[in-house]
Amino acid sequence: MDTNMLDSVTHNPTEPEDMLPPNHTDSDLPERQMEETTSDAIPTMPLPKVLDTIRTCLDNLRSLTYNITDDNTADKLLLTLKQAQSEVYATLPKKNFLPVFPCRKRKILSSSHVMLPKKKSTWKSYKFAGRVGRKADERVTTLDQCNPAETEADEQVSIPMNIDILDASYCLTSDEIDAGLQLITRQWPDVITQSTLLSQQKTMFPKSDLDGKLCQVIHIKEAGHWIACTNIGGDGTLRVFDSLGLKLKLPTIKILASLMKTPGRTFKVRSEAVQKQGDSTSCGVFSLAYLVELLHGASPAECSFDVIHMRSHIFKCVSSGEWTSFPKTDGSNKRTTTPSNYSYQVYCTCRQPYSKKDGDMIECHHCKEWYHRSCHAVPASAFCPVTGDIYQYNCVKCRQTHLV
Questions:
Q1: Which of 127, 136, 216, 334 is a Cys-bridge partner for 131, taking CB atoms 3.0 to 4.6 Å apart?
Q2: How do residues 317-362 score in pLDDT, each as one tens digit?
Q3: pLDDT digit string (tens) for 148-182?
Q4: How far is CA 125 from CA 122, 149, 309, 403, in A?
């Protein structure tokens, strides 16, 4: 190397070459260098891995929400989730204002796949089966003490509630309604509730204690609508709270009659005037609110609910395991439904109104009560008697009491 070139280079050992001037700040860096620093701070991941990470975070967040006790924290979290949901919904491809999801193709197995034989199910035998004597009794007693009954512990566990009910466009399903009814039975043990799946399948409710307090939510399958009913304060009349005020048709009346099973020959239903819902998805929310306010001693007809906070109130109460009174307003913008009364003649031991779809009916010669052929073992000759013969049918009750 040329010595003249070495002499021309001045080198200061006290100041490193990469040291910035005294008056230099981070803002004086070139834009390219700032962009490289920012890009290095956030690691890049493929889209499937990012989506898996998001789902994991949402699952962890859902578990943490059961421990939230501060209202401000819950409101902020709800607002953040709503904003994120709206942003994601806006980016989805849509057709006729509805999101379009990719169609998943079914996997078709080729002939090269070999079907493995199914494993035979084996019963797990009891550990002390077939053993007798004092030593076996001691082992069974020790085993029972180590495994106490879990029924009492299960009653204290809070019922999980779907977070989707916070969405105003979400209609409550039978799972959320049944969770609310289970909490009512737990908080008020003298109240009788049953599963809502029976009303969805158009099957009859089993006979319940008529002396108890009955609170139930019924699903009208024809309209896709939830209504609440109770016998509290009805004096033998079933009270119905319908947030839409629909006219009750015969299939719904039959379900209500099977729930009530009135001992008299007249079944009366009174649809009361209550607050009307303002959308098409809040029927289940209002149905639970009517029953909860009734059990708290308030009149559902006089309640004016705060529609904005009703869903969050249901989520908090079911998650915490205690029903409290719903938030209310002054009632200045309240709209009410039109009340209506219904009265039907009921027959047979099923206490149902007459319907041609139920089949043939026959009258008891002694008590003059009509019975369904499907409910009692009535012979076919009773409906097609021989010419000149008069068939006199006596029901089971009359044969037992009057010996006819």
A1: 136
A2: 998 889 999 999 988 888 999 999 999 999 888 888 888 888 888 8
A3: 444 343 444 455 677 888 888 889 988 899 999 99
A4: 9, 21, 53, 52
Alpha helices in 241-377 (DSSP H): 250-260, 283-295, 310-320
Q: CA-to-CA distance for 50 and 120, rounded, in angstroms? A: 42
Helix (H) or strand (E) holding 139: helix 134-146
pLDDT, one tens digit per residue, over 80-94 is 988 888 888 778 777
189: CB partners within 8 A, 6+ apart: none
Domains of the chain: 158-344 (3.40.395.10), 359-401 (no CATH)
Of the CA atoms within 13 Å of residue 18, those in its CB half-sphere come to 0
Q: How far lies 189's CA from each of 180, 214, 365, in Å? A: 14, 11, 43
Phi and psi based region of residue 56 (left: phi greater than 0; alpha: psi -120 to 50; beta: remaining): alpha
State how far Cα 169 lies from the chain centre.
15
In this structure, what token pair is assigned to residue 381? 């000759």
Kindly give the pairing relationship between strand 225-230 and strand 213-220.
antiparallel
> Residue ranges of the alpha helices (H) in 160-296?
174-187, 197-200, 250-260, 283-295
Instruction: Report how far apart, in Å, the C-alpha atoms of 217 and of each of 33, 179, 287 are.
Output: 65, 12, 7
CA 18 to chain centre: 66
Q: How far apart (Å, rounded) are the C-alpha atoms in residues 52 and 60?
A: 12
Extended beta strands in 128-282, E state:
191-192, 213-220, 225-230, 238-241, 266-272
pTM, rounded to two decimals? 0.58
Tell me which residue of 348, 344, 298, 303 sits closest to 327, measured CA to CA: 303
Distance of CA 188 to the CA centre of its chain: 19
